[in-house]
Amino acid sequence: MNTASLAIVLSGALFTSTAQADNSTTFGDYTIHYNALSTNSLSPNVAKAYGIRRSGSRGMINIAVRKKLADGSDVAVPAKVRAKMRNIHAQISNLDMQKIQEEKSIYYISDFKVDNAKPQRFNIEVIPEGSPLRKIEFSQTFYTE
């Protein structure tokens, strides 16, 4: 598998706008990009390489942290990432975040089961290296096939 494949899929997923989320939050010099999508959006090769089951009834959360540099550019930075998902029945699931590092990109991903047309609420805690805890919450509704 081409190492750029996941970076392209994930960066496209991160920057695709949705009605449910702004997809990024800035805290000082750090911007946290986040998104949740159906695992059907992944190519079979990418899903296989990272052990993600492609299915209309499975979702994936994707988080990346970037730091703004003095020259105005930004770089990917490592972080401690914790995420929880709550469904409409108030059941909470801790998401097992997997760190993916390829070339100059760092992503944190996890997949999970979703129910059709029911919103999922995500609570994300991010601690970029050398920075305090940042918290993000967002909701996403998935439509299964």
Count of individual helical segments: 2
Q: What is the end-to-end distance?
A: 28 Å
Q: Report low-confidence residues grouped into runs of 5 or more.
A: 1-5, 14-21
- How large is the radius of gyration? 15 Å
Number of domains: 1
Helix content: 10-25%
Question: How would the global form be characterised?
Answer: globular
**Beta strand %:** over 45%
Structural class: mainly beta
Taking the sheet with the most strands, its summary is: 6 strands, antiparallel
**How would you name the CATH homologous superfamily?**
Domain of unknown function DUF4426
Question: What tags apply to this protein structure?
Answer:
globular, mainly beta, 145 residues, Immunoglobulin-like, 6-stranded antiparallel sheet, 13% helix, single chain, disordered N terminus
Describe this structure in words.
This protein has 145 residues and is mainly beta. It has a single domain (3-142), classed as Immunoglobulin-like (Sandwich). The protein contains 2 helices and 10 strands. It has helices at residues 3-15, 44-49, and strands spanning 24-27, 30-38, 58-68, 74-76, 79-86, 92-95, 98-102, 105-113, 118-128, 134-142. Strands 1, 2, 3, 4, 7 and 8 form a 6-stranded antiparallel beta sheet that branches. Strands 6-5-9-10 form a 4-stranded antiparallel beta sheet, with no helix packed on it. The longest helix has 13 residues, at 3-15. Residues 1-5 and 14-21 have low confidence and may be disordered.
